[in-house]
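Task: encode each sequence below as structure tokens.

Item 1
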Amino acid sequence: MTKLSILDQSPIISGHTPVEAIAATVELAQAADQLGYERYWLAEHHGLNALADPCPEILLARLGSVTKHIRIGTGGILLPYYSPFKVAEQFRMLEALFPGRLDLGIGRAPGGDLRTAQAVMGSTTGGSYNAAEYFPEQVMELIGLLDGVLPAEHPHAEVVLQPQRETAPQIWVLGSSDFGGAMAADMGLRFAFAHFINAHSGAPVAQAYRGDFRPAAHAAQTRGAVTPAPYSAVAVFAIAAETQAQADELAMSVDVRRLQMAYGINAPIATVEEAKARAQHYAPRDLAIIERERPRAVIGTPDKVAAHIREIEARFGADEVVVLGVAASYQARLKSYELLAREFGLKSR
């Protein structure tokens, strides 16, 4: 049976405020807990008028307090911005509040444009966001801190990390290229591939992750940060609607979002009405972009969406599927997850 999880970017739909978007995230998390979803992940983005959550580690505390069963986590924390020690403190605190339910998904993308990245970094001198150079070192430190296995010679080895616990959040590496998969395999971590970003070359990356996986030296004594065996997920953009006509309307809003991203337009998610108006004026270049981006989304009736998701799951050899659904209304988004839960036979709680 397919394990389904949710990735929520806290989208700001046109006509709504960021505060309303956050409230919709809380409502959806509560519904997901009852519907039987496995995990609920929050994404980190900065400086975007379409996405409301720049600090998922704070919102996780709220979600944990209003849910009972579902695992909660990040998809992901953008680690190059931060001190691994501080991130470890934050997630140890969350683990103390909601033991056995925490996932720490980490990524290296800036989560916004480079000017915004400089603001998040606190740089006034034009410093660059150099994620690739130090990211593996940061991840190794994070593993050591959460599992309590920092080498004695590490400069932070004697610093007390609070709150002290015998369990740790699961660490997941998030990626859309072979970099993340290779690093997760080498460090003995869980891996999630972002099919919704890269719809064409993920399966070989996922297969290489499984083939190259090496358990961490301390895997048998892990507090939970690393995994003793390969474990992977594929994150898929999917929207289900009761009829194909409804699905086609929701797809129009997704098309507008793809155009906004392609043209660097910082705007909220379009409603169906706005998308229909925009579609009347598409230029040939617009249509080419829409056609190019369509493989990144699975949109249709529940049976068709489920069949496509199962095909992707099988191709990736994934242990779980994480569904990202950004729809033209919060009601349509909630309905989509309800339809998918029913189609996949999730057990309500």
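Item 2
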Amino acid sequence: MHHIPKPIGTRICIIRHGETEWNVEKRIQGHTDVPLNEVGRAQALAMAFNAAHQRFHAVYSSDLVRAVETAQVLAQREDLAVTLLPQLRERHYGLFQGITADEGAALYPAAYAHYVARDLNYDFETGESLRRFAERVADGIDWLVRHHRGQTIAAVSHGGVLDVVYRRATGRPLSTPRDFVIPNCALNWFHFDGQGWHLDAWADRHYLHEVLTESPE
């Protein structure tokens, strides 16, 4: 059992949803509602079993089905209902939704250049800019902290959301390349003490070694 730091302010365990077929195919999902695949459901069960030694005051989820399905497995073990929080949705990737990054490079080379450069203001024409997405995520996290002061809660979300929270908690700018992994169904622990966001434990997935397969956002 991994040691989890003692409560300081509000503790939030943020969990990326289980694997989907689009993860396997390396398709960018964004707001597209893709359900978990068989591996994803197994990951969710393993995650919920591992998290059972924690007591959560509440379980939240993005309103996209891949997150809701993952959250429901955890909530059932906790005998809690899942509360949907749309601010925890993945970024809207506009014209990149439903295609792979390689397809994006071929079909929309200018858009792909913005994507690779992590341009804060580019919105994929019909999507969200990285700057606006990060502001939405921060609003959602701040709402959770205000409503659960001093409590421990779980929130099931997405790779892009965890990217934003990790960077905020470790002082890394949004524009730098990602040099950290965001595995499906790993436990990521943060605390919020009124002064800022702090990372306590990242990518705890020791329980997934039997079912884990690597996959992109």
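Check on item 2: The chain has one domain: 10-93+128-208. The mean pLDDT is 93.
End of task.
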